[in-house]
Give the backbone structure.
Amino acid sequence: MTEKETILFIPGHMCDERLFAPQIEALEGDYRIVVADLKTGSSFEEYIAHALVAAGEGAFNLVGLSMGGMLAAQLVAHHPERVMRLAMLSTTVEPEAPHRADTRRQRIERAQADGLETIAREELAPSYLAQAHQSREDLIDLVVAMAAAHGVDVFAAQSAAMTARPDCLSSLPAYKGPVLVLCGDEDRLFSIEKHKVIAALLEKSELVVQPGIGHLPTVENPEETTAALKALLARDAS
């Protein structure tokens, strides 16, 4: 029996395996699925070390969304031989902008004062979702539930890790495997232009822009996102 290839999913800020639930359901019959747990650690180096342990020995396919995409960029920069195919969703490889660091500090303070669920419902979910999805209670509740499962201390740790993240613009081109770069055209956090920058850096990249979709294409537009991942997984990784 042929051994199944592994897919390592790395979720975004304050997210977990539920972020990829539609894709996991569609792919788990044909692949070994691993989801990185970002509840432990306070730096990109620690998160990546934990993810590599979870992935196990050998090469794997790598899917990262938002902060997960930032982590994926750093992982392939240091361990390109481990990654068969790479998917970068709703993300950037640039360092933190100063105004974003200020926003993160303010949100940590508010989370400590008003509770994390308030921040997730009033600030995170609206910034994540496309205009047409702003009133979708299922998606809002998902964002709130994933954040609540992490807690304020993890919120502060992940926020600090993103603020201190490295610039991968110069190191990412060393990766030569097949790449999917995917985003929604209503992503309020990382523009289409930022995704074009990523795609231009990678020799075997395909850029997919989903109309009317925000920062969470895996759950806002699950069928098309899964189809794009399946197309990546069908590409020759040799």
